[in-house]
Amino acid sequence: MPASLHSHSPVRCDMVTADEIAKLCYERFNELPRRGKPEPGREWTLLAAVLKITRCANSDTVEKEVVSLGTGTKCIGQTTMSPRGDVLNDSHAEVIARRGCIRYLIQELHRVVRGEDSTVFCQTDEPGKWRLRPGVSFLFFTSHTPCGDASIIPMTDSQSQPCAPVTSTKSHEGSDGSRGVKRKSEELSEEQNTKLPRLEEQETEETKPGDTLQPVSMTLTSATSEDLSQSHSAKAPVETVSQTSAELKIETRGPLTHIDSTGLNVQVPDIHRTGAKCVPGGPADPLHPGVGYHSTGVLRVKPGRGEPTLSLSCSDKLARWAVLGFQGALLLHYLQKALYFSTVVVGKCPYSQEVMQRALVTRCSHVSDLPAGFSVCPPVLLQSSLEFSFSQAQTELRHQAGQGRISPCGAAISWCNVTEQPLDVTANGYKHGVTKKALGTAKARSLLCKLELFRSFRSLVSATDPSALPETLRRTELQTYWDYKQASQSYQQAWQHLRSQAFPRWPRSDRDLLLFH
Predict the structure, then answer these.
(1) Cα separation of 25 and 47, whole Å?
(2) Fewest beta carbons less than 10 Å away: which of 214, 301, 443, 498?
(3) Which residue in 365, 301, 319, 329 sits closest to 494, CA to CA?
(4) pLDDT tens-digit profile of 55-107?
(5) Helices (H) and strands (E) in the chain, counts
(6) What's the gap between Cα 67 and its chain centre?
(7) Which of 346, 381, 341, 378 is nearest to 363 (CA)?
(8) Integer Cα distance of 331 and 405 in angstroms
(9) DSSP one-letter string for 54-91
(10) Neighbouring residues of 472: CB distance < 8 A, sequence distance ≥ 6
(11) Catalytic amino acids?
């Protein structure tokens, strides 16, 4: 089904309209300080948010509140991941928004264990367990379709094609089969803010539908890690691609064509492409012209620059949250049931309702035999007609001569509705603006990194009266982050069912990276 810029998707659900949600999120972003925001007309970013929706008692109205907001397009490579848990591995906007929401939920749990009122949680009959208050739900907003499977969208004739012009030749291949054209993102990394840690070569940028992507003649396999490290550049210069079956010609603003057996140019339906790469061991992208370029419905890791990442695509993470909940293993210790997003709203961008359904819902719809407190909870999918002012498309429209190359913003912003330090601006997995000398210290840590969230959670455990502790937290041998995650037994059981039935190739976490205190 062809996708327009705003496809035939629902715009309203349960007294909430997509445009109302988008407007609230954009307004919240505009109210934030300038620090970490893109340079207008030159830098772009993505925005995501979590909203609390409260149905008013004895009324047909709802209250809508942004409780967490995030921006960002990058993630770090696997070699820069820290066994201390003090580096923020994934800084895509969707992940930033969800992790900020965890901070918000920990604050609300702090309130209820101290005997204070919370607008989110109320007590249950089960000792040490809490649940959402009646009428409260959570909604997820993202200004663009999530990277990965949800971004593999059919194009209409009027839409710009995802690739720069391509000619069929092998003359530019290196001896290792790689292309001789330098990634534009690598060139851009040399122009980043000098106050940031000089780790740009270790971080990767998001590629979204509508970007100018470059096809590379490459098949991913599980044999080498180098396969995962390849990625397409945004708005790449003319590059070469080898095709054995047909000559491929792609015009930046024209239809994708190939030369058939009669020598005539034949228009080929094309798709928006994703920079996220298929996980090893499963189906690879066939890289055929047009709609046959990608495999669909498969797990993908976010693109690496020079090395692979271990971060699954945002499409995959949202699909996982629809089964395991977005609260994670630690918070489930305190919750009677997992927390699910009732609705996912996408801003104005290339969009397909069918593709979103496939990526976020269908892949997990058959999962069964989940433990108590879990269920398959597919969100309602909506799209807004309002576009984010710092989207790549809007940045290109506002770009002026002399501003330099258009590039993704190097910083990621997190804001959440907490009383202490609601704003957290990062770059390269660390606090924005820190020097290399400060790396490895508390001063450099993001409030969203695993270590900081774990410390916040342990503070919650310490604040809980021993007699009111959840049963799963009464074991004296719990010490490390790994210990506390594994002790959340029902979560681990649900994850095992999801993995075996839907995502058997989801990479397993390296335990050595999770043994911090």
Answers:
(1) 8
(2) 443
(3) 329
(4) 988 778 899 999 999 999 999 999 999 999 999 999 999 999 999 999 999 99
(5) 11, 24
(6) 18
(7) 378
(8) 43
(9) EEPTTSS-EEEEEEEEEE-EEEE-GGG--TTS-S--EE
(10) 333, 487, 488, 489
(11) 94
